[in-house]
Model the fold of this input.
Amino acid sequence: MNPLKKLLGQTAVYGLSSILGRTLNYLLVPLYTWVFKDTSDYGVISQLYAFVAFLMVFLTFGMETSYFRFIQDAEDKQKVFRNSFLTVLALNAVFFLGVYFFNQSVADGLLFSDHPEYIVLMCAIVVIDAISALPLAKLRAEEKAKQFAMIQFASIGVNILLNVILLLGFFDPARPEEGVLFILVANLISSLVKPVLLYKDFMGISFSFDVALFKKMFVYAFPIIIAGFAGIVNETIDRIMLKQMLTDTANGFSAKMADAQIGIYSACYKLAMLVTILLQAYRYAAEPFFFNQMKNQDRNKVYVKIMNYFVATVCLVFLGVSLNIDIFKYFITNEAYWAGLDVVPVLLLANVFLGIYFNQSIWYKLSNQTKFGAYISLIGAFVTIVINYLFIPEYGFRASAWATMIVYALQMVISYILGQKYYPIKYNLKKFTMYLGSALLIFFIVSSIPYGDHSVIQFFINNLFILFFIRIVFFVEGISLQSLFSRKGKKAA
Done:
């Protein structure tokens, strides 16, 4: 089977669960912004889930990628899975017990002193998700995409249903902390769906542990842990730093006001998630696919072609959302959150750079030089913290958005330079420049047009430019509409 068609097919199945699932979660944004009239309450939720993202990187311990790598040459693939799973299980057990017994101290350190129960629930969610990650990775490795999608759908469906029931049926706006608890409880129950549906993998695990294999896997995984941890700093540290740096009671800026800024930023960040949805779906299929291509003599040609199509696709999503922001903004039902809409194009572009960087990162995974992933991510984390530290006091969440874009662009460039030195893949930079440059040029041209109150005219002109971009891609790739329709006609005949 054509490897590109295989990747596309698996991406479609993984994407169905990821895109539909994330779209359903995306539809929770109108619910949350409607229920939480005060933007600061939504800011609390955003901070808690920022901590969840940090913990997931640490508590999965790089074992997913390590598992994909080591089963390639292993005669006993079950032993590799068992080692990975038991490592994650032991780490999470120790972590949860520590948090449970010292939850008040942890809550104090995270500025949630009045609500240590938030911390316990948050940690329970992340522990269950981390423990479920390896059985789900096994499904991906075995190319059981449909079963994987079914489990994800079930978990997401339960989460959506419980959110709607609890927030619309039982939530009292006079007690916003109750709404936070409802959201966490809904997430906890939906996370439990995964191990329930994966019970065969859990029940079939023997506690036989290969220490020698663990050492090899740890050496491979450790740089990935550092890279992942540093990467999540780039993604989520801004929410944490915003509260720490904006809270200034001496000048009358309370913690609640800082939470309000985080709430606005986080709601608008959600509008940039269409690129993130695409990345998530793509990553589920791409990582095992890239490893499976290791023995293919034409693997570099495959990687180059994939990159061409990927860059064109994410640039199209960037234009589709940024040029139709006046439509997408209505997903945020409370106009108080619209104050941050100007950062959406910046965040969309940041995710374009992130996707390109992810595609490039295959070079250090295939060549067993994962240390470079750690170096690149550490540089990114350092720059993220510096930019946020210097500019948050003056520019608030807008500094965080620009920091995200700058760092992902920097990582993309560094990865390309190092990759060409240590594991050369001759990407087509002309096409890359054409797609990205055309998308940015179209964005700036359209943004400069004074439409006034003519929203209908604006809609048609903006989307004509998007169609023009698609035409550019077709021209560069040598695709004609006539050939597309003729293929469909042949199939129908």
Residues 211-246 form the longest helix (36 residues). The chain has 22 helices and no strands. The chain has one domain: 3-448.
